[in-house]
Amino acid sequence: MQYVPFGSHGFQVSRLGFGAMRLPTRKEGDKNVVDREQAIQMIRHAIDEGVSYVDTAYPYHGGESEIVVGQALQGGYREKVTLTTKLPVWAVNEEKDMNRLLDEQLKKLDVPYVDFYLLHAMGRDRLEKLQAFHYRDFLNQAVKDGRIKRPGFSFHDNYQCFLDILHDYDNWGMAQIQFNYLDDKNQATEEGLRAAGKMGVPIVVMEPLRGGALAVPPPDVKEMMENYPVRRSAVEWAFAYVANFAEVATILSGMSTEEQVDDNLKIFDHLTVGGLSEADIQFIRALKEKYLSRMPIGCTGCRYCMPCPNGVGIPDIFHAYNEARMFDRNEGFARHYARMAQDGHDASRCVQCGACEGVCPQHLPIIDWLQKLNTEYQPK
Ligand code: SF4
Ligand code: SF4
């Protein structure tokens, strides 16, 4: 296992972090519950083999993740890891909710404090809401009374919003962002990652495999990997890209099986900051281009076409279709489209008024695409 300093906090952390959002599950009646015995064994096995960072959050596994993580960390394991959980910002309706939720989470985890407490899935609206509830005072007080060691935030919005949050508080101990070789220009972006580094805010990366999609490349991408002189698995290329950045402390992987834990441990044995050659970096850019070339609709998601007067979810349909084509997951799109039809946002609602095409900066033939997709995927 490789270790790096966690920014300037004065301790080291394993490059691989255990994300407790995809723990093994089993059926209990008609419900999926965490297979606690297996999950606890997996988490402890990862720690025994060198993983020293564990990430959970209030909503993971319907609230069960924090409890299971707490159980896994009994018996001397808590002292071996940096433990992070997150404030469910959406559940904060008044100022005192922040204290109440933190206390509830510490109880579930069965610990007196967490090392990092993150404001979960921050974006513009949530920042404004928490500002109104004086979130800085809450975090400062929780640090002072010892319930959290360091505050941070996890993030899902755009670059500008990321900078605004970074500058909104002086004591961020870290920021957790979605980052992988397809998302270097999305959400916080590589520029945001660099900006955080310059401000001394270490980065923890989530979704390094883009929800697992980068682990299973389509045939043309796979062929490129097979023909490249340096042999790495698809998973390894994705992890190696993120691990190359000095600003990145830990890379989270939501592991579900012991096999995945062992595969990841092997990969993180040798992934180092700056470990990729210039040729490797160019190759990863080529992989990204290949993925992007598989997206048939040049929709940028700007949403200028919204709202459609008839409720058609234009960018959402295009985004889901592009993703499905990019990763060869047509059945996934069919399911997504059926859900959109149920919610009244599918393309069958289009009356071809042309309002969307008139404002689309990409001049996309939106109506043609909607018709084509509706013909092919309208649920019977
Ligand atoms: S053309 Fe169809 S999708 Fe576009 S705005 Fe009109 S009804 Fe909505
Ligand atoms: S305006 Fe065009 S590019 Fe923008 S979201 Fe709508 S379809 Fe996509």
Brief summary:
With about 375 residues, the chain is of the alpha/beta class. It has helices spanning about 35-50, 65-70, 95-110, 125-130, 135-145, 160-165, 190-200, 220-225, 235-245, 260-270, 280-295, 315-325, 330-340, 355-360, 365-375, and strands spanning about 5, 10-15, 15-20, 25-30, 30-35, 55, 80-85, 115-120, 150-155, 175-180, 205, 250-255. The chain has an eight-stranded parallel β-barrel, surrounded by eight helices. Strands 1-2 form a two-stranded antiparallel sheet. It has a two-stranded antiparallel sheet with strand order 4-5.
Supply the CATH architecture of the largest domain.
Alpha-Beta Barrel
Give the cofactors and ligands. iron/sulfur cluster
Proportion in helices: 40-55%
- Low-pLDDT stretches are none
The top-level CATH class of the largest domain is Alpha Beta
CATH topology term of the largest domain = TIM Barrel
Strand coverage percent: 15-25%
Number of discrete helical segments:
15
User: Biggest sheet: strands, sense, closure?
Assistant: 8 strands, parallel, barrel
Please give the order of strands in the largest beta sheet.
3-6-7-8-9-10-11-12
Radius of gyration: 22 Å
Which sequence of SSEs, written as H and E, runs from N to C?
A: EEEEEHEHEHEHHEHEHEHHEHHHHHH
Report the principal-axis shape.
globular
Rounded to the nearest angstrom, the distance between the terminal CA atoms is: 51 Å
Could you describe the 3D structure shown?
This protein has 380 residues and is of the alpha/beta class. It folds into two domains: 3-286, NADP-dependent oxidoreductase domain (TIM Barrel, Alpha-Beta Barrel), CATH 3.20.20.100; 314-377, no CATH class. It is 43% helix and 16% strand. It has 15 helices and twelve strands. The chain has helices spanning 36-48, 64-72, 96-109, 124-132, 135-144, 159-166, 189-198, 219-227, 234-243, 258-268, 278-293, 314-326, 330-342, 355-359, 366-377; strands at residues 3-5, 12-14, 16-19, 25-28, 31-34, 53-55, 82-87, 114-122, 148-155, 174-178, 203-206, 248-253. Strands 3-6-7-8-9-10-11-12 form an eight-stranded parallel β-barrel, surrounded by eight helices. It has a two-stranded antiparallel sheet with strand order 1-2. The radius of gyration is 22 Å and the shape is globular. The N and C termini lie far apart (51 Å). The mean pLDDT is 93. The structure holds iron/sulfur cluster (2 copies). Residues 308-310, 312, 314, 350-356, 366-367, 370 line the site of one iron/sulfur cluster. One iron/sulfur cluster is lined by residues 308-310, 312, 314, 350-356, 366-367, 370.
